[in-house]
Amino acid sequence: MASEYLIDLKGRKFDNVFKMPDGHIGEEQSSIIPAEGPRAMFWMTDSIMHKMKEGTDPDVSHMSHEHRNGFETFFVDSGKMWLYMNGTKCMLTQGDILHLQAGMAHGMGFLEDVKYRGFFHDYVFSPDLGAFNKAKEKYPEDTELDKLRPTMDFINRERMLFKEIPTEQCPAVRNPKRPLAEYKLEGVTMKVITQRWENAGANELCCAEMEPGFTAQWVKFPANRELLYVRKGEVKFKIYDEEFVADSECLVNIPKFAPHSLEALTKAEVYDMGGLTLWASFLHDYMSIKTYDPERFAKPETISDLKEKFNCQIECIGMKK
Ligand SMILES: [Fe+2]
């Protein structure tokens, strides 16, 4: 069911191949959505990180680096990997989410092939990058040209000294099984995965765990550009007059002002990757008013004021009648 708004990550061919110094293919990668606006939001890449060459010791070979400005959120959608992060080492497996803030040094060792979906913001791109890539296409082997490669907010670090810790103790590793906060609404559980202050205020990450029959209708012309990641389940979307089903490992890329709605066809796990709605604040205040001031909660303007305050563009939610 093809749609210009649907990006199915399953079984895609990759655009780039990155080899390790020994010739082993380390990563196949495609840039799926380009960065947008002054904070380089919405940049998304899809990679398969290949299992390390037989006999490689990740404690020795992990190449660590950090970013001055850039934030990275990776969905580990298959396999298992070691993460080395600021002097610790822990194991990540399918279902984990890795949230690396600017200044967190990180290196990896891939024990199996890992489907590695990256979402970024605040990366500093050199304005010369496009021109450099063009020249590199013409002169792929030229070492003089390589010396002029624009820097990409990528600072190499040394092989890391580390202490092995349980995964749950690593502040960079998130999992919907261990949300920072959780709110149950009709047909959906909203889980806070990363907070706005962990993203330098740019966005936040929330997961909606939907029951079959859950529906959400946005306002007629939503003022948010939206990117949703359906990690599990099947969800029917309507965007303008187009209907389609997004299943596991699908992105739904919704332009600003496009009327849209959704209906979960099965249990589903859907992430708000744009993160422009202040979900954590909205949900917390919603529950506070409901608990402490039911009279105020019952007035229709209470919730509409809250939606406006926290940029929630959803008109209504509930179970399909
Ligand atoms: Fe990185």
Give a description of the structure.
This protein is mainly β and 321 residues long. The protein has 2 domains: 6-174, Jelly Rolls, CATH 2.60.120; 181-319, Jelly Rolls (Sandwich). Helix content is 15%, strand content 40%. It is built from 6 helices and 25 strands. The protein has a 7-stranded antiparallel β-sheet, with helices on one face. Strand 15 (181-185) and strand 16 form a beta hairpin. The longest helix has 14 residues, at 279-292. The model has no long low-confidence stretch (mean pLDDT 95). It binds fe (ii) ion. Fe (ii) ion binds at residues 65, 67, 72, 106.
| Ligand catalogue | fe (ii) ion
Distance between the termini: 26 Å
Biggest sheet details: 7 strands, antiparallel
Q: The CATH topology of the largest domain is what? A: Jelly Rolls
Assigned CATH architecture of the largest domain: Sandwich
| Poorly predicted tracts of residues | none
Strand order of the largest sheet: 1-22-19-24-17-16-15
Beta-strand residue percentage = 35-45%
